[in-house]
Every structure is written in C-alpha cells, then in structure tokens.
Amino acid sequence: MLYYIFPKKIRWFWLLITSYYFYMSWNPTYALLILTSTLITYLSGILIEKAKTDHKKIYVGLSIILNLGILIWFKYANFLAENVEVLSEAIGWKWENPAMNILLPVGISFYTFQALSYTMDVYRGVIPATRNFGKYALFVSFFPQLVAGPIEKAANLLPQFDIAKKFDYNRIKDGLILMALGFFKKMVIADRLAILVNTVYNNPTEHEGVEIIIATVFFAFQILCDFSGYTDIAIGAAKVLGFDLMKNFDSPYFSKSIPEFWRRWHISLGAWFRDYVYFPLGGNRVVPWKRHRNILIVFITSGLWHGASWNFLIWGFLHGLYYVLDMLLTPLIQINFKVAPFWKKAFKLLSTFTLVCFAWVFFRANTLQDAWYFIEHTFVFNPEVIIGNGIYDMGLDRREFKVAMLSISALLLFDLLEGRFNFFDLLRKQHFTLRWGFYIILVLSILVFGVYGSSEKAPFIYFQF
Fold it and tell me: Is 386 among the domain residues?
C-alpha cells in the first residue's frame, strides 16, 4: 500500500530500503556482502564502458575474480579444505583441516550470478552501464527474487524501475492468485512430502526397495513444488508491485527428453549457464566432441553451483551425461515399428522421469555413502510394503498419504491444463461465482491441509544455495 501511496519518483528507493531490510532480517552483517558485490559490478560496468578495447577484459576479469572469490570463500572453503586433507593423507603428507566455521549467506549464489550477468552484458554491449547506483543496487537486491531467483538479467529488470507503475486491480489480483498457488505447492504438497522423504533419506539403512522408490518419487515432487512454489510467490509478489519476472518452470515432468527437461526446469539458471559459460566455450559452433565437452562442463559447474559436495557434482555430471547420450543416441534410435503415438510419448515421459529421479538420489542423499546405499538397495523386492500397511509407517499415516497423492494428482492436472490454456485468461472468462469459488477453495485448502508446526517442516530447499 505504501508503494502505491508514495510519489512515483521515490518508489524505487522505498523498494531498495525494503529489500535490504528483508535480507537483513536474516543476518544484518551479511547485507554488506550484497553491497560489496553491488559496488564491484557497478564500478566494473562504468570502467568497462569507458575503457579502451584492450582494458575491457581486465575489468571484466577483476569483477569475475572478486565476486567468485567471495562466493568460493563462503560456499566452498570447507569443501576444498576437506578434500585437500584427504588428498594430502593419500600421498603421505600431513595437513590438518582448519575446519572453519563459516555461515553460508542465504541466496549468495543467486545474487552473485545476477550481478555478474550485468558485468558481462555491459562488456558485450548488450546494455549500457547504468549511472544510477541506487537503482542498480535495487536490481541486485530486489526482494521477491533475491534469495532464490529467478536469476534476472539487467536488460529485463533494470528498465522496469524507470517505468511508473499504476494501480491495476487485475494485475494485483493475478499476482495474489499466483502467490496463493505458490503457498499451496509449498505448504500443502512440498512440506507434506518432506515428512516421508526425510523419514527415509535420514535413516537409509532402515529402508529398501519400494520404500526408496516412493521416497525418491516424492522428493522429485517435493523439490518441484518447493522451488516452483517459491518462484510463483516471487513472480506474484513482483507482479503485485507492477514488475514482470521471467518464468522459471514450465511443467518439467512432462518432458520427453533430458534436453527438454532442462528447457523447462530452473529456466533462469539454464539461461545463465548457456549465455555465460556454454557460448563462451564455443557453444554449438565447435566440432561435436568439443560441444559434448562443453555440455559436461556446464552441467558439472551447475552441480557445483548447487552445493559444495561430491553429491552435487555427481548429480550435475549425470545430467550432463544424459544430455550428451541423448544427442548421440537420438539420431541412431528410430522406432519404426507401429506404436500408437500415445504410448511413444508415455514411454519417453516415463524414461525421462526415471533418469531424473535416479539423479535426484545423489541430490537428496545426505552423504555419498547414503546415495550408494539407496542405489544398491532400490531393487530389493518387497511388495509387502504396498500390500500391507508398511507404506503408512514412513512418516505419513493413511489420511496424510492420501492427501499427498491427491495433491500431486491435482498438480499434474493443473500443469497439463496450463500447457494448453492460459490459466489467468481462462479464469477471467468464468462466471463470478466460479472465480470466487476457486479463490475460496484455494485459500481453505492451504489453511486446512497446509503443514503447520511439524518438526519436519523445512525452509525452502533452494535457500541453502
């Protein structure tokens, strides 16, 4: 309300104050990190624009080194130290791990990548360097997408701060509906599934076979609803204020191949790696083996971006391997025998989802040893878990398990319909009673079926990245 009450010329300043307040509510001291990253990339943009051709690369390099240096220190210092210790022991050296107690700043990977994209876009001449430090600081710290994306580009978000936003009832309503859908995904689906997933993945030796399969499939939907739920809330909150953020998810589990999955999953991160890693490495303009190498580099780097552990590196490598194999095998495999298009599509959907779930094991497992245990014990034949009541001893009782299954079904149905219709346009065309009936049911579903006060309730998964 204050945003729309304030004069249009100072609204951006109000958003800047609230964005920094939002982040400082977690840890005031770490707001200095955002400010440091902002200063480095802001100054680098101006210096790059003023510099002669020979000096531009120096300023780009300094900006990248300084920003990644901060990221590496806070996110990867302990991981590197642990591996140096293991390596030194293997070759007979004695090196003691200092075991630094470093608190990982929330969202550091997101705002670091967003700030770096500005530096590189100025260097490429995609955008001019901005001279308004305050508006640039708002671009880096804009609160809806600050801690978990989507990772915006300056060319999209910065110009929007110069446009006067009018109070638009329909836009605000659409934003609030999108936020409500995000809360439904997070509180009703993701947090409920987390109870079963945590029960299995935090106690690996007590589960096998069907239990591991159910927990892994549930985690696939947990992380989708957790992350896309946050994205819906972020995009909806920005929409209420008059800003358009990029779409970050597009029904990824309806993908028929791994390349398609990555065009639908975490779209903003995929675009970042494509533009600032894959293309500089040569992209598609190189010989096939180098293109495959570039893809593997991108996915391994993406895995490392997600977390400082071998689990994430393997997860990224697996997706890179999937991607390369898809490129190599698809032209060779031609199914010529007569199969109904529906079954062809179903096979592709199921096989892609299976590959994704296999990789999720490494993403979710607490340790690499746990991940190997899950893989080794997945194929144990124990149908009694489903036939009997063992399925209800995994954290969710009969009622909660049914709610989980129904909510997943509702999500898939919604994604299927959204792929064919524009949801908000379709909703606007409905009669008043149908529209408000939907609003009331959505809110009541969150209130009645949302997970509250559970010890298993977790913050958004991607906050840790």
Answer: yes
